[in-house]
Amino acid sequence: MSALFSPFISKPDTVSAIMLRVLLALLPGIALYVWHFGPAILVSIALASLTALGTEALMLRLRNRPVRHFLGDNSALLTGWLLALSIPPLAPWWLVVVGTAFAIAIAKHLYGGLGNNPFNPAMIGYAVLIISFPAQMTHWLTPHGLGPVELGLLDQLKYMFVGALPPNVTLDAVTMATPLDTLKTRLHLDEPVGQILEMPIYGRLAGHGSEMVSLGFLLGGLYLLAARIITWHVPVAFLGTLFAAAGIFHLADPTHYAAPLFHWFSGAAMLGAFFILTDPVTGPTTNKGKLIFAAGAGLLTYLIRAFGSFPDGMAFATLLMNICVPLIVLYTQPPVFGKKAKASGKGKGQP
Fold first, then answer.
1. pLDDT, tens digit, for every residue of 191-213?
2. Structure confidence at residue 337 (pLDDT)
């Protein structure tokens, strides 16, 4: 009978199981992405997945590591998905392949593979693409119902793989600038924020369609919190700092700075808060360190959005804070067990 009341220790989740649950948490955002922007994003995710797995297998073989064991941890798959969700869904096939291959081969395996990379691989891949191919990284699909022309799946595939559009259809007719990019461009023309947000591309919170995608990622992030895959420290600190920074500038000058909720549901804020910054390899391990790390990323994201050259600062904010992780860990790690007790003992006259 006593065995019935004994404590039971559950077996910890494997890396493969944790990564799989993170992938599942991305599905609500992906589903809303398809609903509002079409199925092109699924093609990009498929291309990124194949490239990530192929590059991972090649690098493991070159490094004489067991391919099946490491390939099954789903970490490469997650990197591919996050990169695909960060670039335009109508991006040419080679752009997806180049960015994903660079993320896996250079940003991950160059440093020794999973657990050793100091920078988030997906964000490294994104940074390389936006710096090297800025024109291709601006072709974002227009949400359903807002553009003069909408491409079907076959037309999207033709453009992605051979660069061909239907007759009498230009690229400008099916793509547009992101809500963040449009806001920044219009502000440079001295238009007030209120007037800009009355444009058809904006919805109740942020961009039409993209705000719903952000809500999907928020839903997936709440699942990760409920399942204890991640802790609250990173998303709360990031979103709280982003909200505070945007709120201060908005209160000071509402005609030139958008409200905090706009920044929450624009760009990659929700994706970054729950899926990118929470990477356990490239972020701090202490709770205090997580708060500092995420708060710094939130502040940098807003500053880049408001004053930088790029419309969204999520990727660069992540990479800049990745650089600070060793210093953050150094000053936030708890003392070694017994160290204080030993010091206090010496203070009482002990040898």
1. 999 999 999 999 888 988 999 99
2. 61
**CA distance linking residue 78 with residue 270, whole number of Å:** 16
Handedness of CA 238, 240, 243, 248 (dihedral sign): negative
168: tokens are 């009498």
CB 85 within 8 A of CB 26: yes
For residue 347, list its beta bridge partners: none
DSSP assignment letter at 334: P
d(C-alpha 63, C-alpha 112), whole Å: 9
Q: pLDDT-derived band of residue 173, with 50, 70 and 90 as boundaries?
A: confident
* Pairing, β 175-176 against β 140-141: antiparallel
Beta-strand runs (E) in the chain? 140-141, 175-176
H helices of 63-167, in order, are 67-71, 75-86, 93-102, 121-132, 153-162
Band (344; pLDDT cuts 50, 70, 90): very low
Contacts of 265 (CB under 8 A, 6+ apart): 205, 206, 207, 210, 211, 214, 215
Task: For residue 310, give the DSSP letter.
Answer: S
DSSP, res 176: E
Tell me which residue of 73, 132, 137 sits closest to 108, measured CA to CA.
73
Residue written as tokens 């997806």?
96
Joined together, the tokens standing for residue 73 give 């941890």
Beta carbons within 8 Å of 73's beta carbon, 6+ residues apart: 14, 15, 16, 19, 114
Amino acid at 103: A
pTM of the model: 0.89
Rounded Cα–Cα distance for residues 108 and 106 (Å)? 6
Distance between CA 201 and CA 262 in Å, rounded?
13
Tell me the C-alpha distance between 145 and 92, whole Å. Answer: 24
Instruction: Give per-residue pLDDT as tens, 229-272.
Output: 999 999 999 999 999 999 999 999 999 999 999 999 999 999 99
